[in-house]
Amino acid sequence: MSKIILENISELPKGWIWVKIQDVTDVIRGGSPRPKGDPRYFGGTIPWIMIRDISKEKGKFLTKTKDTVTEEGAKKSRLLKKGSLILSNSGTVCVPKILKVDGCIHDGFLTFPDIPKNMNIDYAYYWFEKIRAKIRQENQQGVTQVNLNIAIVKDIDVPIPSLNEQKRIIDKIEELFSLVDSIEQILIQTKKQLKFHYQSILKFYFDSDYEILQLNDVCDLLSGRAFKKSEYSTKGVRLFQIANVSFGKIIWNDIAYLPYEYLKKYPELELKEGDVIMALNRPIINRQIKVGMLNPCDVPSILYQRVGKFILNDNINSKFLFYFLQFSMFIKQLESSLQGIDIPFINKSKLMSFSIPVPSLKEQKIIIQKIEEEFLLVHNTENSINLLLLKIPLIKNTILKQAFEGKLIPQDPNDEHPEILLQKIKQEKEKYEAKIKQEKQQLIQKQKASRKKKNVK
């Protein structure tokens, strides 16, 4: 384990040394009150730290937990003070967090009681962040399970400079991380704004002075058939269900089949390339409409109940209709006309009475071309942003790599050498162990004296 981590770090700068975790701190495991859920131990006022809590909260600190324990539960666990460093050792392994609240850890966590006085706690946190992937890789047990134990963690190597240099390194890491986080937020906000830009494009082309008709003037709507489960087969023609129409696209995560002969039995339900499809049950989720247009890879397929296929006349282009159905004006019409509470739905008569702008077929083709050109620009911009967002963790890893190789900040020749710190830690440890040994001896002597007194009686 130690050797592997050493291979990922170039030669240390002058004044740095390698130490093991056990050289600078004890490693202690948490505890779990049992039985789980017992009201004597759970449901109190003391935060009970779970793996899901550290997975849910992004960043260095843990500020809240979902569950709590009682004072009796805390006695059977391990209660830590605010500012403690913890490390997950099962489940989602090697996730470090610094506590912003007092709380109890169960046996899926380790903690390091001596770090605050022997090592900068933020320095330790970022070291665990840097080596997390390597630790997970080297402690894989089976296909998916990864577990750590006290012995493994104690044996982990850490490159350390002086305490003063550790502090300067952390200041620089957090300065750079803050800059990276700011850039990440700008990218995320830009990506959100691009979603609105799609609607701006549609508004520009559809909110114009064209002839306004009703949908039933340019098309009809055919709903599918409620095929029974007993009719399904293990292979054949795909059944197009509500689950297969998403937000502007067709998806086949959930596939059911009917026998091929159903294509001849129900020819009116056969779907073809270019067909425009819409969900009639729960058609809108988070202001997005479940509508799609079939591609060559989506056919042949057969229409299922509560999915509608638009049957167009000669006055409208299928792509023009497809884009219009995603326009916010249409979505608002649809949203205000939905019926039902548990499963909102739209009936055919209401849907077909909705307004639609209908320019000439020639103008429709020009509009489609312009929409697709502008959509492509937005889509390419989104892809570029996504690629940049994927680089954020790589940038942070590079910063950590340089930090722990001593390349992030200049050194100060006046800093105390870490060997002196190690010597102090060793002396303190010897004093502590001698004190524990003395206390044990005194306890044994008291127990012997007590037994002797009982025997005399």
Automatic annotation (TrEMBL):
Residues 13-189, 208-372 form the Type I restriction modification DNA specificity domain. Keywords: Coiled coil, DNA-binding, Restriction system. CDD domains: RMtype1_S_Hpy180ORF7835P_TRD2-CR2_like, RMtype1_S_StySKI-TRD2-CR2_like. Residues 422-449 form a coiled coil. One of its GO terms (molecular function) is DNA binding. GO terms for biological process: DNA restriction-modification system. Belongs to the type-I restriction system S methylase family. This is Type I restriction modification DNA specificity domain-containing protein. It comes from Nitrosopumilus oxyclinae.
